[in-house]
């Protein structure tokens, strides 16, 4: 039909409802279910039609329905309560941060991430990384961190997934309608929408900036869809992880370099810059360029400043997973840039090369080189990162590689079912929501009566089953399946059967179909007449990941087979809405990645707060979270060289644990039909995990170990016209130019030293002669490095600083120590020297280290 024109009718809200509009534009509603209720109650049908989007809801709601609510006293009083709670949240001055760091409330942390999973309404995330960024922002708001987030606006978001009749994934992209999003133009001091530009590869590209309010903090998103840009540039930011490497490098230039320009254009002076994953690491280069340009520092001085103010979080446990760009592409986009830093092409490229022969510029290496503080996202991932990035610091032993860890968490109130929240409101301390990070908060979970917790869980499980059936029917109708096939969906899933959930991105290392490795055995488990089981799958495969598509197809085929039909379910289009329903409604959450490739994993953290129990490989966060009584493990901590053997061992472990532990526990019910031992596991899981794997704990930890030290470091380094930056450069260059003369000598002990441990512990005298040349002893640390011997190598190394006894000649000194070793065994030891300076963030970062030869 020919459209003559469009008419946009915008409802005007009665005065009473104006505040609902303020709340619609602040994602605070995403973690305050009482606010969500206020919209959906006005018109449930419309609420579902607009995909639970409050902004769009208010645009389309009928005036009549609003009027009707105006006479509902009970509704109006709840409205007042929600508005009051929103206002008091927004104006709260007494936050965790202000209580603990009152002197730093005027500082600012800028956080950079390529994706943000805040709500399904704003689908600019692909999976765990994005959801983590979103949850990080929400907790930063809750804790009162002075915080601003930076990202890109992807007009077409990430793709929507369809699984066709044959079981193949199809991707579709739709333009988001900006006027319906919880997003407003970011305005500058003149009240105009902020706009930035970047010149690269011989042209200038512009972007406008949008503002998303997340409680007390803002997220700014860049969007290149503006009239001044060429059609190709207008679509530069249209898709998350879309396009080729050219698109990717340009998006990352915007994220990193553009992000800094956005902060400037808005007038935000950040003290700390947090790169969440390597996509934004060009940011450091822009900071350096500005310091050189505006503050007249040289490159090394600027590096010093940037190191002190920047933080890098890596999420990738495999070298191949890192973002890299071929050098010719770096030439194309940065050919004009290195000159501005006073660098040669070679010195510039070296910032991102893992080794000098590399032909790819590595964004992770760049971030590791520039950021002064670096971390992985679980204890195990920290260790894996130290191993795989060890070659950035040759000579530094793995344990000392300067990458620490902060284990991921989830934003509790975002993922918590309102029904379980009501139980916590009833049985936990009144202000439990303000102390989610504290262990004591959840200790009272044991006072929730078993019947009540179980009944709530059963209710949520039934709700999930209805949700799944509805989606499956739509899925089948869209695929043109017969009415009979659609009708059969009503018999899918048994509310009484043990229900396993498995949902995450379909990356092959996550091994979604591992449980089908022995089809006969799993079929028997699923079909036990007394104790049946069922499994729900969901997940998207990256469009370019062929093997992952095969996994989807494989699960889809199995789900159609006799003995699996109606018991193995594959839901399409995994997103935050599907995730929320699943993590609140299944009995067990299964995760079986190929260890140690799961950096952290967070979906398992979303389930524990809802009384769902984890069954997982000892990888990522579960390696720390599992305590023997709060869930189950698959396999053990073994490492495998052979993937086939690993898959066999792990799948056998899945079957054994299901058959001997999980299923018997679930079906062991008392006279009232309550599986009391199971409920005990649920409670253990809630009380031992909820607080620790929350982003409240995580952001608190980032604040304590990263943000506050970086704020302090940054203010010291900038003080007095960067005098510390200059003197640190002097220190480094003095050490760099004299380090080749540094040597250690020790007389090899004639035979093995033999000591007897006694109660009082005998001291072992060790000494070494050190040649420092022009370096002063106050500028180095001399250490004994020792540990038990295994195959001639030192294991479980420990160090102890040695004392400088005397000057034995020009530039040479004698160092010694009286070492105490408490445990018997065969030990090896050696000596080493590293730099020492009170303002070095991490002495191993300098790469300067000398061992005895
Ligand atoms: C939480 C979440 C993830 C992360 O899941 P993992 O199991 O940690 O990989 C991915 N996608 C969505 C939609 C999520 O909500």
TrEMBL record:
It holds the Pfam family Phosphorylase. Keywords: Allosteric enzyme, Glycosyltransferase, Pyridoxal phosphate, Transferase. It comes from the Bacteria. Transmembrane segments: none annotated. GO terms for biological process: carbohydrate metabolic process. Signal peptide: none annotated. Residues 13-122 form the DUF3417 domain. Its EC number is 2.4.1.1. The modification N6-(pyridoxal phosphate)lysine is found at residue 606. NCBIfam families: more_P_ylases. Belongs to the glycogen phosphorylase family. This is Alpha-glucan phosphorylase. The lineage of its organism: Bacteria, Bacillati, Bacillota, Clostridia, Eubacteriales.
